[in-house]
Amino acid sequence: MNKKNMENDDFFDEASVIQGFDIELSESNALRIDRLVDEYEKSILNRVDEEYSENTTISDRLADSIAKFGGSWTFIGCFGAVLVVWMIWNTLPFIKPLHFDEPPFILLNLCLSFLAAFQAPIIMMSQNRQSARDKHESVIDFAINYKAEQEIDDIQKHLHRMEEDDLNTLEQFNGELLEIKKLLASIESRLSRLDIKTEE
User: What is the rounded distance in angstroms from the CA atom of residue 85 to the CA atom of residue 89?
Assistant: First the structure.
């Protein structure tokens, strides 16, 4: 059994115990709710992605790309390799005429300071945009959950109406059955009296 089936089974197990007007939510109704919520969530998220792309400027995309690269193992590996090559190149004695930043590596410290000074605000810009997006998505999640709750309430009300209709039909049937029994009893009584008169 794959993960999706396990999640669906857990959903049905949880949904089957939901009570509304003393009526259990059936598996078919739970499946319907699950499908509607998934479709609604996909449509909303697609719309959010479209708005996000439309409202994203070139500078925003550049900031996101820099933040994405700056927080990756690729950046750490490349930057570490540059630092190692820089220090080795400027410490080897047989190429001393080619040294451009001898220990204590003042130029390297200056480059690192510039990198940190520019990289930190760019990463913060990207994080602020991502935070705003996450907040917007949390509102959407709330709307999806609210819609799912409304759908469950509608189904429960519908089931309750069906139960009331069944009870009314059953009461009507019992009333008609009682009338039929009374009519049969009356007919039997009349037949009995006719038999008695005939014998006399």
Answer: 6
